[in-house]
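Subject: Protein entry, chain in single-letter code together with its fold tokens

Category: Structural biology, sequence-to-fold work with a learned token vocabulary.

Notation: Tokens come from a learned vocabulary of local backbone shapes, not from coordinates.

Start of record: The labelled sequence and token lines come straight after this line.
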Amino acid sequence: MKVLYFHQHFSTREGSTGTRSYGLARRLVERGHQVTMVCGSYRGATTGLKGPIVRGSRRGVVDGIEVIELSLAYSNHDGFLRRTATFLRFALRSAWIATSEQCDLIFATSTPLTAGIPGIVGKLLRRRRFVFEVRDLWPELPRAMGVIRNPVILGLMSFLEWCCYRSADHCIGLAPGIVDGIANRGVRRSLIDLVPNSADLDLFNPGENRSCDTSIRAVFTGTHGIANGVDAILDAAMQLQRSGDDSIQIELIGDGKLKPNIKSRVHADCLANVTLVDPLPKTLLAARLGNADVGLMVLADVPAFYYGTSPNKFFDYLASGLPVICNYPGWVSDLITEHQCGIAVPPSDPAAFADALRDIASDPARRRAMSLRARNLAKQFDRELLADRFVNVIEQVT
């Protein structure tokens, strides 16, 4: 079977962003299928292609995956209008590819929601089977965050969401709330599968240089954007600093639209316990996390996030054997509490966040026990297992 796979933000492990599509495409190839990946040029991503861009694109084979990279640069730093324009340009060019590239099945993954357009086109014009993967519920999340308020835009996005779900022969959701959201739009549960993000157990491992005393290093990795709520970490850092507790150092690894603001606040508040680190390729990030002591999970306090996200960083933390502190309720906090591999704290409570860090720092034996339980939980989300589940879904659709 030949799969035409659309993911605007595709990256190999050499990039500093998520590698889910790389791992899933590789498993399709290993199971005997052909994959053509269509993507854009995403800041922080590395497609693996080295050749020149000719007439707006370049093409080649990367680890058995045929990659078509469109010269459409995108960054989280871009403003709303520029990002929207890039999304639409990618969707239109991808739709043309969907009408001309040989394939048996079209697979498209959000975000953005417009990634579903080539799937709709291929379904309607070429009668190809179409599977749509939903990473975030749009327009529910931007509406809940207040990022998009224009009722016309929200209405158009809601219509596109409905078209994507109803055109698809099957849907895949990355979190329980996403599966529920798809079903709430009238899609039968039998046509929806949950395949969450996963843990790369071969890449991320507990290191040998972790603290054995009460001085620890806590790490947050990922996008520094509006949705990510990184200020919650700075609030906790301020609490620690005011109390004179200098045994806990915090690293913020990544980039994003709000990183300049975060840098300014660290400087203005003289937060000596916070270090900002530029994005790292996954291979280097794995070593960094392996020798950290705590992973930090934060999001803006938006109820739509609670069960509707599947953060890559969480599974990287688990695979690295990191106890996790999470500041929002939902399925991630439920897992942490159930498996006793970290501490769940209330949203918007910097004192509780700081206390959780102190608790983990003050008890090395408890920290080691949490680390072992985190790694054990990661095995339930092993990418090898979930990649096979994904391929099984694709094969059943055909």
